[in-house]
Amino acid sequence: YQAKEGGGNVAAYDSSRDDASTDQLALLAELREALATDDQLVLALQPAVDLATGAPTGVEALIRWQHPRRGWLGPTDFIRPVENSEQLGAFTRYVLDKALGVAAEWSRAGIDVPISVNLSARSLLDPRLPGEIGDALRRHQLPPHRLVLEITETVVMSELEVIDEVLATLRAMGVQLAVDDFGTGFSSLTFLTRIAVDELKVDRSFVIRMADSPEAAAIVRTTVGLAHELGLRVVAEGVETAEQRTALAELGCTAAQGYHFFKPMPADKIGAVLGSLLDTAQGNVFPLRADG
Ligand code: C2E
Ligand code: MG
Ligand code: MG
Ligand code: MG
Description:
Blueprint: H1 6-37, E1 41-50, E2 56-67, E3 71-73, H2 75-83, H3 88-108, E4 115-118, H4 129-139, E5 147-152, H5 153-157, H6 161-173, E6 176-182, H7 191-194, E7 199-202, H8 204-209, H9 214-230, E8 233-236, H10 242-250, E9 255-256, E10 265-266, H11 267-282
Parallel strand pairs: 2-4, 4-5, 5-6, 6-7, 7-8, 8-9
Antiparallel strand pairs: 1-2, 1-9, 1-10, 2-3
Helix pairs in contact: 3-4, 4-6
The structure holds ligand C2E and magnesium ion (MG) (3 copies).
Residues 46, 62-63, 74-76, 79, 95, 118-120, 150, 180-181, 237-240, 258-259, 264 line the site of ligand C2E.
């Protein structure tokens, strides 16, 4: 904060901003490399479970980047610049292909559990997306209902016709749609009348505050009731404790996901975990704690 020379300060400010955008450009160039070499981007997989039976209701794919220089990066470290770049299409296709590849593996083992993939709002602006998803499903020989696309309310809120059309096409193909982080958008609930969805995911922030905030508990209860009334599935996100799990069950929530059940795990572990969850559920004995 040496404010001696105004001009110098402006220059310093500008150059730090340049550094930030230079770094983003570097990151995007590195992503191009990672997509091409196919050895840095990996999916972590996190099951959601039925609270009554313990059966897996789905598995969410969460992207990770094992960067050769920057170390392990999570989606929040790089998704934003990717979303605003020309590489979004390639990135989205890459994630979908990897996720469907994993699901095809467990499907071949006779496990019919759907895979959920998070989509950036902007990828829904591309009218080629449904066709690409159809191709990918055929390539991996998976029925469309085995794929769930997680979209956030902000997406659905934008009321862009092209997004509605892309989503309607996907739904007509038989692909399932879930509203992620439900309750955190600034939208009214009207989007649920505009776009048919299959699942609502109660945002983690409400699950965390449920115990000491009557408002948060009311939001969870209302979301569960809304889902029930509309015939949609409902999944609580970010469940970390047995208390939260019990409270959710008491509020009528039927499925949940979170560290209390499973942390996101590598692809080579997921098949065995799903298999043993299904075995246990068939015996109807729910493991008190399936994972740390
Ligand atoms: P999300 O879809 O709401 O995913 C849930 C996030 O919460 C994940 O973080 C997950 O690892 C984390 N989580 C799960 N259970 C718990 C828990 O019990 N406690 C806590 N504290 N956290 C839990 P992650 O993997 O860092 O992903 C963050 C967000 O990045 C995701 O939020 C999703 O919106 C986005 N994202 C992840 N993968 C992709 C992707 O492949 N493409 C796009 N476009 N976005 C992605
Ligand atoms: Mg999600
Ligand atoms: Mg979420
Ligand atoms: Mg969330």
